[in-house]
Automatic annotation (TrEMBL):
<feature type="domain" description="SbsA Ig-like">
    <location>
        <begin position="33"/>
        <end position="135"/>
    </location>
</feature>
<keyword id="KW-0732">Signal</keyword>
<dbReference type="InterPro" id="IPR032812">
    <property type="entry name" value="SbsA_Ig"/>
</dbReference>
<feature type="signal peptide">
    <location>
        <begin position="1"/>
        <end position="22"/>
    </location>
</feature>
<feature type="region of interest" description="Disordered">
    <location>
        <begin position="540"/>
        <end position="562"/>
    </location>
</feature>
<protein>
    <recommendedName>
        <fullName>SbsA Ig-like domain-containing protein</fullName>
    </recommendedName>
</protein>
<dbReference type="Pfam" id="PF13205">
    <property type="entry name" value="Big_5"/>
</dbReference>
């Protein structure tokens, strides 16, 4: 009997032990755990000097796991061979770091884990835990602080890399294209501020990158860039503003393709202005009656080149872009294809706004419009007077008349109303349109003060940045009216059009030119039907002060540089 009791007790002990092991790291009830894990030991110790180890083990006070380590871990200076971090996927009380790269002499290294170390129960993050060591006699301890903005959008990107390049005898501005930086950090996904730590004294170039290429170098095709115009001296007590933009210096012409018997498409990559690209035929020599038209595609980085027939097996073109001093030569072989034919389509279908004229687009270049073969009738079948014009850049015919509320219109095009580049004309077409009541729209009056200079561009956008309306102002006015707005939420920005070309211009890294300045209205404008809103906007320096979430107060100086 006593032996049976001992066996039963032994079985219960083993069962409870196994149950406890199986439930390791699982919540047992009670209050929710909100305490993040902590490091209890590191081998070698953090802040070690004369470091020569190839493996590091870091112990924690509870079971942890690594979350999104590929995005969150930042190693500064970057290593050619990415360190191996283990274990991944399983809960553990330690992390192993295996270093395969050859470490630089007299250099302080920082492993910033961001938000990747979390406890196994509630995933409380051990925020921005850093493991630091030096291959020299001391650990560098200087810092550079700053914050990220976007040159045109109200909210900056997350996961922005911030880099320091040491200024020495080998430095050139083009180093950012081919060499990883001396120091690096990342804003990750929770803040727009940054702090690069453990820097040695010296002179540096400060760069920000939305590193979509993932190379720790600048790839203009995919990345945004920000820079401080002048070199910075460390130590420094300045807070630096890095203003991200898409550089327009990148350009590459794609090989052209014969898309139809009378059309070639010339694709390109980059943020360049399509108007700066020139296409010239080198062979054969164009005859005296040769004609062509170039129209930018509305959605793609493509130029459509329409041309009159030629007797040739192939065509040779010179494609130049003086803006970036690039010239390419391409051969296009002629083959049997159908010709593009004229098709018309209205830009507006059904509803007609009070601000925009009725527009008709075409599948081939529009050559002429005959107003006498177009009629506009209201709902009482009374003719409405209108004007017509051709927008060759957009390849549209615009019809303008005084639109009235709660009205219906019928637009009729008789054959011959619109002719295209090749002499084709339209068939009989009819479009039915209607207008809403004034009460279906909202109106916004903006009163600006503290405008630094003119001209300016006021733009209303959606919260995603799509431009819905804009006003160009060359001098100060008492107010600026946006009328007949569809109900919804809008953002407002004011662009300082310093070069007076009527649009916002981005920056250029190699020319050290910053983007044109933009001031954002701090709130969201809620436009409601049949409402009129009057809103004051006191413009401030487009280089806003550092956010309140910047580094600790005692480390944030008063002066801000960009």
């Amino acid at each position: 009997m006593r032996q049976k009791a001992i066996n039963t007790g032994l079985f219960l002990c083993i069962f409870l032990t196994l149950l406890n092991c199986a439930k390791r790291g699982s919540p047992t009830g009670g209050e929710k755990d909100i305490t993040p894990p902590k490091m209890v030991l590191a081998e070698p110790d953090t802040s070690s000097t004369n470091f020569k180890a190839k493996r590091i083990r870091i112990y924690f006070n509870e079971y942890i796991k690594l979350k999104d380590i590929q995005k969150q871990l930042i190693v500064s200076p970057p290593m050619k061979t990415t360190p191996q971090i283990m274990p991944q996927g399983n809960a553990s009380k330690y992390i192993d770091i295996k270093i395969s790269d050859t470490l630089k002499e007299n250099t302080t290294y920082v492993f910033n884990f961001g938000q990747s170390i979390v406890d196994n129960n509630e995933e409380n993050p051990y925020s921005f835990f850093k493991y630091v060591f030096s291959t020299g006699d001391y650990v560098d301890s200087l810092t550079v602080n700053g914050y990220i903005t976007d040159a045109i959008q109200k909210k900056p990107d997350n996961f922005v890399s911030v880099m320091l390049y040491e200024i020495d005898s080998t430095y050139t501005d083009s180093i950012v294209y081919k060499q990883v930086p001396t120091y690096i950090t990342n804003t990750l996904d929770s803040t727009s501020t940054f702090q690069i730590t453990n820097i040695k004294a010296g002179k540096y170039m400060l760069i920000g990158l939305k590193d979509n290429s993932g190379t720790n170098t600048y790839v203009p095709k995919t990345d945004k860039i920000a820079f401080i115009k002048d070199f910075i001296d460390v130590p420094t007590d300045s807070v630096y503003r890095l203003n991200l933009f898409e550089d327009n210096s990148y350009y590459r012409a794609a090989r052209p393709v014969l898309a139809a018997k009378n059309r070639i498409i010339f694709g390109y990559e980059g943020t360049v202005n399509a108007d700066s690209i020139a296409i010239d035929m080198l062979y054969p020599e164009p005859p005296a009656d040769y004609r062509y038209r170039i129209i930018k595609d509305k959605e793609k980085d493509t130029l459509h080149y329409w041309f009159t027939p030629l007797q040739a097996d192939s065509l040779i073109f010179k494609v130049t872009n003086p803006r970036v001093m690039v010239r390419d030569t391409f051969t296009v072989k002629i083959k049997e294809l159908y010709s593009d034919t004229l098709t018309l389509s209205p830009a507006q279908k059904g509803s007609l706004s009070f601000k925009d004229p009725f527009s008709i687009g075409a599948s081939t270049p529009i050559s002429s419009v005959t107003r006498e073969k177009i009629s506009v009738l209201n709902k009482d079948s009374v003719a409405v007077d209108f004007t017509s014009e051709i927008d060759k850049k957009e390849n549209l015919v615009r019809l303008k008349w005084e639109t009235l509320p709660n009205e219906k219109y019928q637009v009729t095009l008789l054959p011959g109303a619109i002719d295209d580049f090749f002499g084709e004309t339209n068939d009989t077409l009819s479009y039915n349109l209607s207008t809403k009541s004034f009460a279906d729209y909202g109106n916004l009056r903006m009163i600006l003060s503290n405008v630094d200079s003119f001209p300016i561009i006021l733009q209303l956008t959606t919260e995603k940045g799509e431009i819905k309306d804009e006003i160009y102002a060359e001098e100060t006015k008492s107010y600026y009216d946006f009328n007949y707005l569809n109900p919804g939420k809008y953002l407002l920005r004011v662009i300082y059009d310093d070069n007076g070309n009527g649009k916002w211009d981005t920056g250029d890294y190699l020319e050290k030119r910053q983007p044109e300045r933009v001031s954002h209205f701090p709130g969201v404008l809620d436009i409601k039907a049949n409402w009129e809103i009057e809103q004051d906007f006191i413009l401030r320096d487009p280089a806003p002060p550092a956010p309140k979430t910047a580094p600790e107060k005692d480390s944030v100086p008063a002066n801000i540089e960009e």
